[in-house]
Design goal:
By secondary structure, the chain is an alpha+beta fold. It has 2 domains: about 90 residues, no CATH class; about 120 residues, Gcn5-related N-acetyltransferase (GNAT) (Aminopeptidase), CATH 3.40.630.30. Helix content is about 45%, strand content about 25%. An 8-stranded mixed β-sheet has the order 1-8-2-7-6-5-4-3, sandwiched between helices. Helix 5 crosses helix 6. The mean pLDDT is about 90.
Length: about 270
């Protein structure tokens, strides 16, 4: 969940509002039998007082906190000229093979939603979340809170890649992507990103976030070659631009905490090759 939206000022009234939000959140979570609350403080631009705000809430409401870096693409007329050189070569070589289009609003049909669902399952090697979640994602593009970038193979006329971008005010966020494995060697992911940046420039969006930049392995966040490869791909667009994302977590029952610890244990077993 996002952090409650209040101005970050040392003001007793604003502090009281933030306290009310956290108290109400926990009350509702308990009523709904939620076992784990996770929140992130991710302002478009860090103000410098994030640690102080996090610390107050962590101490008062018994959370634990962590932080990660996130890749940021600064959107301006020079953005595409500054991306990694081979990305430019990929775009020049492979973009003529595909029609790259933007789908939003009424263009996001039930058929397109179903196509993305099937494409994502094929890309991921199975269905690992509910079908309903794909409908909710499509609603983001339907209601003007984002858009799909669609890659259509010009030979077969089949959609072989889709990228969902979320947009809020002047900021954009990578939401979800699916690419037909048969076209992985055509660098469809690079083409989708390129077309997304063109659209963000047209919409006068200022930043495009590509989370998360993995750091050196920690006890709770062991790195993997896959994570590092994904981060390297994103760095080719961000070119050194990043910002800190602050996260807080709280567990409300033993079962949820046990599941979380077991998940972390499995990550460490794989990391240490035990």
């Amino acid at each position: 969940m996002p952090w409650p939206c209040f101005r970050a000022e040392e003001n007793s009234f604003l502090t009281a509002l933030e306290d009310f939000a956290f108290e109400e959140l926990e009350r509702r979570a308990k009523v709904a039998k939620v076992g784990h609350i996770c929140m992130q403080l991710t302002p478009p631009v860090n103000q410098g007082d994030e640690h102080k705000r996090i610390e107050r809430i962590v101490q008062k409401y018994t959370y634990v906190h962590s932080r990660v870096d996130s890749h940021i693409v600064v959107i301006n007329p020079e953005t595409l000229s500054l991306v990694r050189k081979r990305y430019k070569r990929y775009y020049k070589k492979f973009s003529p093979l595909f029609a790259l289009s933007i789908k939003k609003g009424k263009d996001v049909t039930k058929e397109l939603e179903e196509l993305y669902f099937n494409l994502h399952v094929r890309d991921a090697g199975g269905q690992f979340r509910s079908r309903k979640s794909y409908e909710k994602q499509a609603d983001i593009a339907r209601t003007g809170e984002g858009f799909y970038v669609v890659a259509t193979d010009k030979v077969s006329n089949a959609i072989v890649g889709m990228l969902l971008i979320s947009v809020y005010k002047k900021s954009a966020f990578d939401n979800s992507v699916a690419i037909d494995p048969d076209f992985a060697d055509k660098y469809v992911g690079h083409l989708l990103k390129w077309r997304a940046i063109e659209e963000l420039l047209d919409q006068k969006i200022s930043t495009y976030e590509l989370p998360v930049k993995p750091s050196a392995s920690t006890f709770w966040e062991p790195s993997t070659p896959k994570k590092r490869n994904i981060s390297h791909f994103k760095e080719g667009w961000a070119r050194g631009n990043m910002r800190t994302v602050f996260q807080i977590d709280k567990f409300l029952n033993k079962s949820s905490l046990h599941d979380f610890i077991l998940h972390q244990e499995n990550l460490l077993i794989n990391y240490f090759n035990l």
